[in-house]
Amino acid sequence: MRMVDLIAKKRNGNVLSEEEIKFFIENYMAENIPDYQISALMMSIYFQGMNQEETAYLTKYMVESGEIIDLSAIKGHKVDKHSTGGVGDKTTFIVAPLVAAAGIPVAKMSGRGLGHTGGTIDKLESIPGFKVELTNEQFIYNVNKFKLSVVGQTGNLAPADKKLYALRDVTATVDSIPLIASSIMSKKIASGADSIVLDVKTGSGAFMKTLEDSKKLAREMVTIGKQLNRNTIAVISDMNQPLGYEIGNANEVKEAVKVLQGERIEDLRELAIELAAHMTILAGIYPDYNKATFELSRIIDEGKAFEAFKNFIKAQNGDISVIEDYDKLPTSSYHVEVTSTARGYIHQMDAETVGIAAMHLGAGRATKDDSINHGVGITLHKKIGDIVKENEVIATLHTDKQENHEITKLLRSAFTINEQPIKRNRMIYDVIK
């Protein structure tokens, strides 16, 4: 078998066999195939696409290129959640303890962030003392005892994906639904869960900007999961504005704690209960959606999810005093008010621009070597559909910089204000099963 023949075959729009996909993954990992040939193949896939079987085989052999986590020592049906990423997305800190409080084991491996704000692991490190690295024995013990543990992702999880992504990133082939779907699902399947719930974002702050593309990606990932024997569901959720009101690492932990304590931050609570409901149904805890959402709402309101969160933080050496009194979480030196330059209703809020403003404050990473400032970020005071007066405060920058003129200007540009009222965004657009 020759790599040049595989490139030509896909360039001409033909289907690669399982053997051919296995060949190029295994030989690329063994460094028998040069980057330029894999780049040519990725470009051929970008233009010609892949069918469902090809995408499933690509995912399968990326999974098999590295470690596959064995969670069999954990009692019960393990359900994982994955978000395709957005601005202010802190749902893991609500969903995971909520599902754990319902009796489902959550054994989660998460990564660090690159871009707008930190990843789940960066945000957890806002909590003094919190350990993101545990031995396998500690990880399994914590999940069996407390029903929840979140650790940093192992470096040997789907290594073929990391190599392929590095090439795609520099050859303009990232934006391909089969390649995106196989990249995400290879890591989720290698993580060892029995079932997977996907939160696929759509809108200005999402990777997929249109609802049509978001649904295509969701269908592709659900199909891959099912073909590789994982029950998989995808929820399409709104990212035309940040989720909740807080952007930034400690800020987002604080807002998640507020929801766990019963505060009605509606979009955040709605999405968290939606994702948790599908996780509990897949695990067989509740018989249907209505029962699941009713019981999960009760678990939050009775404080059981908050207790599960505190147990999880304490088990990983985190200082729970900052959870019980979130004003002790890291904060910035300056708090700068950003005011409106017009009156009317907020019609649009470019979530990506808000995220970039947070990154410039130090809440995210422009490159993988950048460090995170856990105390900086943005608090929004207005969302789409809200009325605003001229010179009214629409956001607050939490910053360690004395000069913030350019960031203030950038953040203001994210808001579009119009005199006519507008309906608020839907939070959930669809569920793909």
UniProtKB/TrEMBL annotation:
Matches recorded under Pfam families: Glycos_trans_3N, Glycos_transf_3, PYNP_C
EC number(s) given by UniProt: 2.4.2.2
Residues covered by the Pyrimidine nucleoside phosphorylase C-terminal domain: 345-418
A GO MF label: pyrimidine-nucleoside phosphorylase activity
Keywords, ordered alphabetically: Glycosyltransferase, Transferase
Cofactor dependency: K(+)
Catalytic activity: uridine + phosphate = alpha-D-ribose 1-phosphate + uracil; 2'-deoxyuridine + phosphate = 2-deoxy-alpha-D-ribose 1-phosphate + uracil; thymidine + phosphate = 2-deoxy-alpha-D-ribose 1-phosphate + thymine
Broad enzyme group: transferase
Its job: Catalyzes phosphorolysis of the pyrimidine nucleosides uridine, thymidine and 2'-deoxyuridine with the formation of the corresponding pyrimidine base and ribose-1-phosphate.
Similarity comment: Belongs to the thymidine/pyrimidine-nucleoside phosphorylase family.
Subunit structure and binding partners: Homodimer.
Name of protein: Pyrimidine-nucleoside phosphorylase
Organism: Gracilibacillus xinjiangensis
Organism ancestry: Bacteria, Bacillati, Bacillota, Bacilli, Bacillales
